[in-house]
Design brief:
about 425 residues, alpha+beta, four-stranded antiparallel beta sheet, about 15% strand
Length: about 425
Amino acid sequence: MAHHSTSKVASGAAGTSSHSLKYCLLRLTTIMLVLGLPSAYGTDRIYLDSTDLNILVDENRLFHMIQIGEFKVGIKITAQVQHSDIVQFPSPTIDIPAVILPNDTVQITHDIWAYGKSPGHSEVTFNATPDGVIDLSKVFLRITVMHSQVISVISYIMGWIYFAAWSVSFYPQIYINYKRKSVVGLNFDFLALNIMGFTLYSLFNCGLYFSSEIQSEYLTRHPRSVNPVQLNDVFFSLHAAFATLVTITQCFMYERESQRVSMTGRCILGAFLVVVLVTAGLGAGGELAWLDFLYICSYVKLCITLIKYVPQAYMNYKRKSTVGWSIGNIFLDFVGGSLSILQMTLIAYNYNDWISFFGDATKFGLGLFSLIFDIFFMLQHYVFYRMAAENQTDADEDDLPLEKKTVDLHLAGRLNLFTRRV
């Protein structure tokens, strides 16, 4: 039949029927499938109902592979588990039968069971035979096997607690400044480093969370990863920058004596600013990906976190006093840092993922470094310079503005007069 149709075409006959043309196209498509050439089916013909699965040790969990449309050739899909000692599939293969007249709109659900063997993380990919019929390169599953669901819930709650503690930690300093009408004792280098650090941190979070272009860059480099920035990260960084800006505004409103940003602080800030501006220029000129620019901003923020407490600690040492520096800020920061490290410990135990605990030296080191400084500030406040802190109550009365003192004396006189009359 094929030879006969070809002869008609070759001879220029005009009697080729539409049925014959359809038959030729059908034969051509079948030959392409048999030869393993790519067909018109896209990755959306096969997908999973979830890309992340959390299961317990010794638990079986069901998930589904969704098939859209039928195929003219039989397909065998096999799961490829990254770590078979963590998760196993009792039935790792799905057989999709061939259909002579496929329905392209039908939806077929295939049940797949995953078994958690030991704590940890494992990726699961899928391949199909014969090759070229469907593309499963973007079909994958991340499976997390954990010891206990209770520990997971506790660590989740801890995350929100330390998020709240760190968010509120800015306000004791703002309140003390307002109450004293003075920022004497608050180091300006600390504030300058803080505002730059949180501004860059906000830039990093907002870029990865709001920019579709930067998200595409990230997914291109890490196709099976999720966006590391969540909405609470964006809120925390923007709120921290705002609270720091409020504190800086207080420095222009209240008594500050001769305090200013030191020359050393200006040089450090200038060096960081040059790095940011140069990399931003490279990004604008197309020489550097914007994602890399954001990474550099985050690295600068990490450097600032390492050094920002040093000026305040040194200032307290020189003054032999912590007056003007909020100990409430330190308490909340200490609570947040402690819960952060405790959460990391619980997660590492629950998922048997101690490599990420010790391997993420930056996060662990910064958390530990902040805790060490918090403890040092507590020692300065309650041990080394305790007498200065105890005398603060008496000193507050002397630090009141003249107008406030006059009003207080006037009210006291009226109260005494009223008492004598009674």
